[in-house]
Amino acid sequence: MEYKGYLALKFLNFDEAASREQRRLQLLELEKMKLTTYESSKLYKERVKKYHDKKLLKKDFQPGQPVLLFNSRLKLFHGKLKSKWSGPFTIKKVRPYGAVELCDPQSKDPERTWVVNGQSLKQYYGRAMERLNNVLYFKLE
After folding, report:
1. pLDDT tens across 37-54, in order?
2. Whose CA is closest to 117, among 89, 84, 95?
3. What whole-number distance in Å separates Cα of residue 17 and Cα of residue 5?
4. Which residues contact 22 (CB under 8 A, 6 or more apart)?
């Protein structure tokens, strides 16, 4: 039984035209699979981009407007009572491509400004807010 399979394999190897044609068909099939993979990956990326772009909200900010800033680096305390939004801050200048220049109205230096992404801001509708400062002392041993 094995001997017949070996003869068939040997026969294919000796027939150059048949083995060349078989190899060409295998390469074409492999190329077709590669192209369909690229196409499906491209379609998936387009759908994910459309979904994420739909989730982004168009925010229109004006200079002088009070806003709250999302504090993404607040990882020290995990708790329900700790707010992730800090502020209110005042918009000094709106830059192109969603960048916003903020200033702190309660700061001692009114010229101190910084630039943040407009997606991390939300409009502040409340009244004046009293700020609380937390001081943490760590004992180093």
Report:
1. 999 999 999 999 999 988
2. 95
3. 20
4. 12
The structure tokens listed for 39 are 């196409």
Q: What is the pLDDT of residues 47-105, one digit of tens each?
A: 999 999 888 777 888 999 999 998 776 566 566 666 678 878 899 999 988 899 999 88
H or E stretch at 121: strand 121-123
Give all strands of the β-sheet with 66-70 in edge-to-edge order.
113-117, 99-103, 85-94, 66-70, 121-123
The residue type found at 43 is L
Helix (H, G, I), strand (E, B) or coil at 125: coil
CB 20 within 8 A of CB 28: no
Q: Which amino acid is at 34?
A: K
